[in-house]
Structure formats: C-alpha cells, structure tokens
Design a protein that fits this description.
This protein is mainly β. It is built from no helices and 10 strands. Helix content is 0%, strand content 49%.
Length: 139
C-alpha cells in the first residue's frame, strides 16, 4: 500500500514507567513505526525511509522522560498542549504549544512536565544509518 492512515483514538495509549529513567508513568501512542526500546507494540513495516517512529506522548503533571543520549539518530519533540522543560546538553528551554526541539546525534536530553496539566507532544525519530533502523540500543 502506498499510504498509511491511523487515528489517535484507535491506537492504545500505553503506560510506560520510568521512561529513560524518568519520573512516573508517561503514556505513548506509537502512531507510525516502531521503537523497540519501549514496551509498546508498533508497526516496523511502516517506513521505507530512515524514520523510526512517530509517537503521540502524554506526560501527566510531575512526570518526565529521563536524560538519554542520541547517537546516530535525531529526534524532535513538538509540544501540542501543556508546558514542559527541555534540557539539551545542559541548556534548559521552556516549551509551550507550538514549540519544537530537535535533538541531534551526539546530544543528550531530558524532558519534564512543569505545568499543572498534561503535557502532550509529538515525537519523531530518524536514524542516520539503515543498520540502526528499529534497533533498541542505537549506540
């Protein structure tokens, strides 16, 4: 098939505890592709390019995604709702709806909900080498 259509409410919103060593439970809808490092089923056959996944992720108040590196991949976070604090290589940035952060290969980042409502983000990751596609530990 030359296209894929999925609807957010048709994809299970899986709880993930301590994502990358972060605080609490976050909720991940693996909309396209697959991230084998998460205990969430996905669709590894979706992309023919080096894109690994597209997630819609919700961080409830007080939760976070822990500090983790990006090696041989890039990832962006687009804030849809709520307020978060993105720390990349030690630099802190307040992220609100419409804010986007691209974490490039060689960087480390963490992201936490600093608001009083759910923080909802779209997360997209692409690898730099086809041998790393759908691999849990990318280096």
């Amino acid at each position: 098939m030359s296209y894929v259509v999925r609807h957010k409410n048709e994809i299970v919103n899986y709880p993930v505890e301590g994502c990358h060593g972060g605080e609490g439970y976050i909720y991940v809808r693996q909309m396209l592709g697959y991230e084998p490092a998460l205990p969430v089923p996905g669709f590894p056959e979706d992309f023919e390019t080096l894109v690994n996944f597209v997630h819609v992720t919700t961080l409830p108040e007080g939760t976070s995604i822990g500090l983790h590196p990006h090696n041989e991949n890039e990832e962006f976070y687009l804030v849809i709702a709520g307020t978060g604090e993105m720390t990349v290589d030690g630099d802190k940035h307040i992220m609100k709806p419409g804010s986007i952060c691209l974490t490039k290969s060689g960087s480390k980042h963490t992201f936490k909900n600093i608001g009083s409502e759910d923080l909802q983000i779209v997360v997209v990751e692409a690898v730099m080498n086809a041998s790393l596609k759908n691999v849990a530990d990318k280096g």
